[in-house]
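In the previous lecture we treated proteins in isolation. Real proteins rarely work alone, and many bind small molecules. This record shows how such a complex is specified: first the sequence, then the SMILES for adenosine-5'-triphosphate.
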Amino acid sequence: MTLTQSQAPGAPDLVEDPVLEMVGVRAAYGAIEVLKGVDLTVPAGTVFAVLGPNGGGKTTTMRVASGLMPTTAGELRLSGRNVTGITATEASRLGVCSIPEGRGIFANLTVRENLWVATGTGTRLEAIEEAAYARFPKLGERRHQLAGSMSGGEQQMLALSRALGTDPAVLLLDELSMGLAPMIVSQMYDIVGGLAAEGISILVAEQFARVVLPIADTAALMLGGRVVKVGPPADIEDELSTTYLGG
Ligand SMILES: Nc1ncnc2c1ncn2[C@@H]1O[C@H](COP(=O)(O)OP(=O)(O)OP(=O)(O)O)[C@@H](O)[C@H]1O
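The predicted 3D structure, ligand included, written as tokens:
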């Protein structure tokens, strides 16, 4: 928490620190630098969308944010705290929950067993299951089914449920649309919009801008390892070229 200058005695005016911030972040795969000074700020309770064509650095940004990839320069902050160099395990302890490209669920485990993974943060399986099945009744019907035998949309519901089971401070969603039919993608983003309305902080990377812009509070356009523009979704929409963002 940061106290604002206008704070008056007896009338605290508290401004919550952003849940996640990157300042001048650089990252490389070996000798190849792919993030070349990324700045972004995700205020608490908002949806921040990172948009851009393939290879722009969206996934790498998400990997850095979740502690999976080290920075070579710059700062990563969680709730105002400089956590640069944090590991993925430490990041998850601090409430960073990531759904990677491809969903990251265990195909050869059942729905229920996949949800069990979220108990690592201390919540009881019964509570996680109850919340998951209330949100997605289909998952309840399929609780004993192997996750790999479900449809892509159902698998994404499972990935979301498992993530929510950890009560995340910030949810990182990478390319939710991958491998899903357009109608299912729309449904998934309706669900994400619902999570946002519940006040969950979300950083989402997406190649298909049109599906995510309606639920975003702020959007950023990422090209060549840099955020080249950031602002309200309507402003970013004007910047988008349907040729490289897939309409
Ligand atoms: N493991 C890796 N080793 C070397 N280069 C990589 C590796 N992963 C990604 N890159 C390169 O880093 C750059 C950024 O990739 P990144 O996956 O972050 O982009 P992206 O915007 O998420 O694109 P996509 O939507 O295709 O995943 C690309 O040029 C890519 O080829």
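Summary for your notes: Residues 2-7 have pLDDT under 50 and may be disordered. The first helix runs from residue 58 to 65.
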